[in-house]
């Protein structure tokens, strides 16, 4: 197991750092973009790229690229919502997404206001639809950025820290502990399971909140 994982990590690390960083940033741009983000596994790309981080500087640069990609993708969704939201919603692609998901995103924004923008970054489906819905609502762009930026930073910090720490720990112990590879796999699996459970709990909490809470009173002026 140690030999196989060492080879895999070496393959990832052999990719030029600039290329890895750009790929992670583009993957996040696509993952957070409306419609495309429903099928692009940006989180997987970032987690894999983070295993090749060899220094704090590389980690920071990767984090900046991931956050920039996320903000770019969400900004695209916002402005598409502002300019073409109703057209997209009525289009074939909009119908494929499903009216219940559109209504869910709108109700979530109506109920939680800016907090919905922050939390949606961690909720499946909503992370792609909420920016578009926010743009359609007339929400001010700078307020949108004020809520989504810290969410993007937190998301990037967690993924990059876990991926780089797990890979670094494995490399340090692989020559001394024969089951180091299993520990690495266990850490990654626990992280992935924890993320999945967290998303599930957030989704359940969001659905309960939509049923029980009054709408949020928030400045929605353009």
What does this structure look like?
The structure is a single chain. The chain has 222 residues and is an all-alpha fold. The protein has one domain (2-212). 80% of the residues lie in helices and 0% in strands. The longest helix has 35 residues, at 56-90. Mean pLDDT is 87; it is low at 216-222.
Mean pLDDT: 87
What is the number of independent domains? 1
Percent strand = under 5%
Number of helices: 10
Count of DSSP E strands?
A: 0
Which residues sit in consecutive blocks of at least 5 with pLDDT less than 50?
216-222
Alpha carbon gap, first and last residue: 56 Å
Helix and strand succession? Answer: HHHHHHHHHH
- Global shape: elongated
Report the helical percentage.
over 70%
For the biggest sheet, the summary is:
none
Q: Please state the structural category.
A: mainly alpha
Radius of gyration: 19 Å
């Amino acid at each position: 197991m140690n030999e196989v994982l060492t080879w895999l990590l070496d393959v990832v690390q052999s990719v030029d750092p600039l290329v890895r960083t750009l790929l992670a940033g583009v993957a996040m741009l696509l993952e957070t973009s409306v419609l495309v983000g429903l099928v692009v596994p940006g989180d997987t790309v970032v987690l894999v790229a983070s295993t090749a981080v060899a220094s704090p500087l590389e980690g920071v640069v990767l984090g900046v690229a991931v956050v920039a990609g996320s903000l770019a993708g969400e900004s695209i969704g916002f402005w598409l919502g502002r300019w073409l939201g109703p057209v997209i919603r009525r289009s074939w692609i909009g119908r494929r997404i499903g009216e219940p998901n559109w209504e869910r995103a709108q109700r979530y924004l109506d109920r939680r206001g800016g907090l919905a923008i922050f939390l949606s970054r961690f909720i499946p489906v909503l992370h792609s639809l909420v920016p578009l819905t926010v743009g359609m609502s007339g929400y001010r762009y700078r307020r949108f950025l004020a809520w989504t930026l810290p969410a993007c930073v937190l998301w990037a910090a967690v993924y990059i820290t876990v991926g780089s720490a797990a890979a670094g720990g494995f490399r340090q112990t692989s020559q001394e502990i024969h089951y180091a590879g299993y520990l690495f796999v266990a850490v990654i699996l626990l992280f992935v399971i924890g993320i999945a459970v967290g998303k599930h709990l957030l989704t359940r909490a969001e659905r309960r909140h939509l049923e029980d809470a009054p709408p949020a009173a928030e400045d929605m002026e353009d």
